[in-house]
């Protein structure tokens, strides 16, 4: 019924290159592996009688059986062989579990290593603690079946498949002594992000980076289907990974004794190859560019659900899709199945593995490393313990000189690029910038003065002419947002810092990755004091919706902000700096922060600048404020509040104010700009939210508010629906209107333009509804003329393109 057996310790067993394990070492490693597998199965089924000290009864079984068994034995098998090499070569090594719901493998090892009991003393290394350990798994009030943040030794949430390998590379960058072993599930290997992340080997520098040892675990099935890579020929599989640039080694079979010898031999060869690659690169004369290595990887082929019963009710179990989740589903109500579960659990011989108190026998414990060399206790898997703050230059010295508001045009992101250039220079081993082939496009190319783009593949002479490729580059570019975000997350989760820029329309590619990381942060920050704070994920969203005059409708989507606001207010921040000095202030703040995902929205094109550096710092510190230079209600109650968030909506709102102050000078306008979007929320809903008094003071309790917003209008209503004056909020935002338009024409189509905003004020302010009728007609004419001019000339008129804030004469 079961393939598990206790291995012989015959002194006649011989050690050879192909059979490196002596009899006693083989017995101990196999015993540790059986203990891991017993714990994995126990987590799935048992809530009482954890070591089967009495016959198994229905009341010992969980009432709801939730969890996955299929990949666990292969993962524990990999782990025990890593333990052997950590001890033999004193390796600094972490493990990433890629298969979905594969947490039992990591949990069982963490428990046997003693780390779990150190972190959670109630889960003690005795029969009482083991019973609690089993019961909590996939149980109300307990832990989930992924490697969630509660799992010591994990930096990877397996809630969504596809990111394990990119997380592994992120962990290895700038960690020269670290080996990251990533077990990739064969179901996971079918995802787009995982397929692309194999190319990460073209960016790993053997001189100053660590190594990634992938283990592709082919057990043949997903939930109910075979997996692609398990059903192609061996030659095709080998060619695939050689084509990716790897050197694949295969370990396959189902006999434990033979498999242990295979794995010990192959894994040791891989580790020695990694060390040889690194030694060759690191011992070369200074200035020698390293060649791209053919890093080793392992293809581990085992039966699905290895070591579980061969059959159940006449159906194949081990080696079939039926072993993916719970191999036997109804032991509580089916006596025959209860006996089968008991026989399965007893096949691991727990009575040989655990002492009377319920602790793993010392002889087996000694096969595992100790202290911080334990995989689940490695500090890289709790990266906040290793994190050091960035050495940041004074952002103020990069500021734009603004003598009068709205007179000069500057690229805000271009200004930011100079600041980031020097952040790189001062943090050459702990800071990287990520972006999909858009660093120069996003006007951040000043960074190339400090560092080129990381690149270990072929270089051609012409690459030096503007390509800025470098084997030791700090700028990470690859046309895969998934891989970049995975690198970034792995990098900060292991204690470093970074910055990511992306076109606004395509940052949606990492929507679900953002979700997963936000959940990880929330759980870590609010519930797990043992997890040290990590550097924030900083996302610069640029190439914005309002400046897509050549890309058109497909590149117009500011909806990422809506996604961000759905996540915990404890870990999310959104900033819309209106000019370069505000962007510098915001960026400095974000780079200093921990345990957040900071989203910064700033266009790359040249725009008017409004605040000098001191004013910008003050404004960003408050997050929201009245701009006196654009307001004329001082000492009086305003007739209307003109509010805005975003650089382009700000300029259009200011232009609308200038029109109104010229043509309707009697109207009293208060101008409010929002940098920190969450300031609009009530203080009871977000840490940055305004109190009712603060909000009412800015926006009044009964006056019309014309709010010009960068993204979809509904988001502002979502934030303000509880406010007293919400009924008077009239929000302008993107309405899914546009194509190949001039900037003003696109604004007109979505009614965020200066003319529509001024019309809105006239319609909302009672005293203007009759007196400003001629002004309103003029504004309508301006809309028609502006669109006609754009269609005739392909650009906006000189009056629009050259507009400046008129200043005191307005």
From TrEMBL:
UniProt keyword terms in alphabetical order: Lyase, Thiamine pyrophosphate
Pfam families: XFP, XFP_C, XFP_N
MF terms in GO: aldehyde-lyase activity
Cofactor: thiamine diphosphate
Limits of the Xylulose 5-phosphate/Fructose 6-phosphate phosphoketolase N-terminal domain: 23-385
One Gene Ontology biological process: carbohydrate metabolic process
Keyword NAD applies: no
EC numbers, comma separated: 4.1.2.-
NCBIfam families, sorted: PRK05261.1-2 (NF003617), PRK05261.1-4 (NF003619)
Name of the protein described by the UniProt record: Probable phosphoketolase
Species this chain originates from: Granulicella mallensis (strain ATCC BAA-1857 / DSM 23137 / MP5ACTX8)
């Amino acid at each position: 019924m079961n393939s598990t057996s206790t291995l012989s310790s015959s002194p006649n067993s011989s050690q050879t290159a192909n059979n490196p394990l002596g009899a006693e070492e083989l017995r101990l490693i196999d015993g540790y592996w059986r203990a891991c597998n017993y714990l994995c199965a126990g987590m799935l089924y048992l809530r009482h009688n954890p070591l089967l000290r009495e016959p198994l009864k229905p009341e010992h079984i969980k009432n709801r059986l939730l969890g996955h068994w299929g990949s666990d034995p292969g993962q524990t098998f990999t782990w025990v062989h890593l333990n052997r090499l950590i001890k033999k070569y004193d390796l600094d090594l972490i493990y990433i579990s890629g298969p979905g719901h594969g947490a039992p493998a990591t949990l069982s090892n963490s428990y046997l290593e003693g780390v779990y009991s150190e972190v959670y003393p109630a889960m003690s290394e005795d029969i009482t603690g083991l019973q609690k350990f089993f019961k909590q798994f996939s149980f109300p009030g307990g832990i989930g079946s992924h490697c969630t943040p509660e799992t010591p030794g994990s930096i990877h949430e397996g809630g969504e498949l596809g990111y394990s390998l990119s997380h592994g590379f992120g962990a290895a960058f700038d960690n020269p002594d670290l080996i990251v072993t990533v077990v990739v599930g064969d179901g996971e290997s079918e995802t787009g992000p995982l397929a692309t992340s194999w190319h990460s080997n073209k960016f790993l520098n053997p001189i100053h980076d660590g190594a990634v040892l992938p283990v592709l675990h082919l057990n043949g099935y997903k939930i109910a289907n075979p997996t692609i890579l398990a059903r192609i020929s061996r030659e095709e599989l080998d060619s695939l990974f050689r084509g990716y640039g790897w050197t694949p080694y295969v370990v396959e079979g189902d006999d434990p004794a033979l498999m242990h010898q295979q794995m010990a031999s192959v894994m040791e060869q891989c580790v020695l190859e990694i060390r040889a690659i690194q030694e060759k690169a690191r011992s070369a004369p200074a200035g020698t560019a390293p060649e791209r290595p053919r890093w080793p990887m392992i293809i581990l082929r085992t039966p699905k659900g290895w070591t579980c019963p061969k059959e159940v009710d006449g159906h194949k179990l081990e080696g079939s899709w039926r072993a993916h989740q719970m191999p036997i589903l109804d032991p509580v109500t089916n006596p025959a199945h209860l006996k089968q579960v008991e026989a399965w659990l007893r096949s691991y011989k727990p009575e040989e593995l655990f002492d009377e108190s319920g602790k793993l026998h010392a002889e087996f414990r000694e096969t595992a490393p100790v202290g911080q060399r334990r995989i689940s206790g490695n500090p890289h898997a709790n990266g906040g313990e290793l994190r050091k703050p960035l050495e940041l230059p004074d952002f103020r010295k990069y500021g734009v000189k603004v003598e009068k508001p709205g007179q000069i045009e500057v690229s805000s992101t271009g200004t930011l690029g100079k600041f980031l250039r020097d952040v790189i220079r001062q943090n050459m081993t702990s800071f990287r910038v990520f972006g999909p082939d858009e660093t120069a496009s996003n006007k951040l190319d000043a960074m190339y003065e400090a560092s080129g783009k990381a690149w270990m593949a072929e270089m051609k002479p012409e690459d030096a002419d503007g390509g800025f490729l470098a084997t030791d580059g700090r700028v990470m570019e690859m046309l895969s947002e998934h891989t970049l975000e995975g690198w970034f997350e792995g990098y900060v989760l292991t204690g470093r810092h970074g910055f990511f820029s992306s076109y606004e329309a395509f940052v949606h590619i990492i929507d679900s990755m953002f979700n997963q990381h936000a959940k990880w942060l929330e759980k870590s920050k609010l519930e797990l004091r043992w997890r040290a704070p990590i550097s924030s994920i900083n996302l610069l969203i640029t190439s914005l919706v309002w400046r897509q005059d050549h890309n058109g409708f497909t590149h117009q989507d500011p909806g990422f902000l809506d996604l961000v606001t759905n996540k915990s207010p404890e870990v999310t921040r959104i900033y819309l700096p209106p000019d370069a000095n505000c962007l510098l202030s915001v960026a400095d703040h974000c780079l200093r922060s921990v345990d957040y995902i900071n989203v910064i929205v700033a266009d790359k094109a040249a725009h008017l600048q409004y605040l000098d550096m001191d004013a910008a710092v003050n404004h960003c510190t408050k997050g929201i404020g009245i701009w006196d230079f654009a307001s004329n209600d001082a000492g009086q109650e305003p007739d209307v509040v003109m509010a805005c968030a975003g650089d382009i909506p700000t300029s259009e709102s200011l232009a609308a104010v200038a029109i109104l102050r010229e043509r309707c000078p009697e109207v009293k306008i208060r101008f409010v700009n929002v940098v920190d979007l969450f300031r609009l929320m009530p203080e009871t809903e977000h840490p940055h939210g305004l109190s009712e008094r603060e909000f009412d003071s800015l926006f009044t309790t009964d006056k019309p508010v014309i709010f010009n917003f960068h993204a979809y209008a509904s988001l502002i209503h979502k934030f303000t629906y509880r406010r007293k004056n919400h009924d008077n909020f009239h929000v302008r935002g993107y309405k899914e209107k546009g194509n190949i338009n001039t900037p003003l024409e696109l604004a007109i189509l979505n009614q965020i333009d200066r003319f529509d905003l001024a019309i809105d004020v006239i319609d909302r302010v009672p005293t203007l509804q009759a007196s400003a009728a001629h002004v309103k007609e003029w504004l309508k004419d301006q809309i028609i003329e502006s669109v006609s001019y754009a269609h005739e000339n392909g650009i906006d008129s000189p009056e629009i393109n050259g507009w400046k804030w008129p200043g005191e004469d307005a």
